[in-house]
Specification:
11 helices; Rossmann fold; disordered C terminus; two-stranded antiparallel sheet; six-stranded parallel β-sheet
């Protein structure tokens, strides 16, 4: 039998390279790791995307990204675990809503429909939304905002390193769609796969309030729905110091469900670890 597949889905302003080294403990645990790239982004280097981002990136939609992820998932020989960070966490919830994947982990996920963003989140999205024709233009996050909002719990050297390696402009349309709840609706009653949602108390993009609001909506599912808080972590919890703890906690959570797939919907989280 082939190794158990896990599909990692990244979010805004980064490439699939953002999953390194976070994906390595999963390989060591025996998973077959997949890090599919978004449409448009997969055609260009980081330097090319920064220097001359194509118009197609600005108008890239939530549906286009989720469709690309679905196509990759359907090529696998069995349903994978889905792990998404930031907007990738939103995309994972949309994929679960389509009936894909055997379980999902949404790491500090962007808001699904029904979750009202707070001021910190809105202030990060406002410049992209308020620009003329912003819904079809690429939007870049400055080095300063990367350090202050995305990677604020990381040391300056790591902020600079991650910026240089994989920070790129992103889709203005996706930001608009999320802000106005277009294409982000899920029905938790349809979900039959276990789901874990996380938060970091120093996250200035997806605040703990947003993660907990998504958790409250997703708890309407009959399937297991768990919440895990990581103190001292910012939005870059998959790469900043202590990322190994995040990875191992997620692997442990999946192990608690993977052993009883035939009983999906009737698995309790370990007391004291998950809410």
């Amino acid at each position: 039998m082939s190794a158990d597949p896990v599909v990692f889905v990244h979010g805004l302003w980064v490439t699939a390279a953002s999953w390194s080294p976070f994906a390595e403990p999963w390989r060591q645990a025996g998973y077959q790791v997949h890090t599919p790239e978004w449409p448009v982004i997969d055609q260009l280097s980081v330097a090319q995307l920064r220097g001359d981002p194509p118009d197609a990136l600005g108008s890239l939609s939530i549906k286009a990204v989720v469709d690309r992820m679905e196509a990759h998932i359907r090529m696998l020989d069995r349903p994978p675990l889905l792990v998404g960070h930031s907007f990738g966490g939103l995309f994972v919830q949309l994929l679960l809503d389509r009936g894909l994947g055997r379980a999902g982990i949404a790491l500090n996920p962007a808001p699904i429909s029904g979750v009202v963003p707070g001021w910190l989140t809105l202030s990060a999205a406002a410049p992209a939304i308020l620009r003329p024709a912003g819904w079809r233009r690429p939007y870049a996050l400055s080095r300063r905002l990367w350090a202050e909002r995305y990677a604020n719990a990381a040391p300056p050297a790591l902020q600079a390193e991650t910026w240089d390696r994989y920070v790129v402009p992103t889709s203005g349309r996706i930001i608009h769609q999320a802000a106005f709840w277009r294409g982000t609706r899920i029905d938790p009653r349809r979900r039959r796969q276990p789901l874990l949602i996380t938060a970091g108390d120093r996250d200035r993009l997806v605040t703990p309030y947003l993660s907990r609001a998504a958790y409250r909506i997703q708890r309407r599912s009959a399937a297991p729905t768990d919440f895990l808080d990581f103190p001292g972590r910012s939005h870059l919890l998959i790469a900043e110091p202590g990322w190994e703890t995040v990875a191992q906690a997620c692997i442990a959570w999946d192990a608690s469900h993977r052993s009883r797939l035939s009983d999906i919907g009737f698995i309790n989280a370990p007391e004291g670890d998950f809410l």
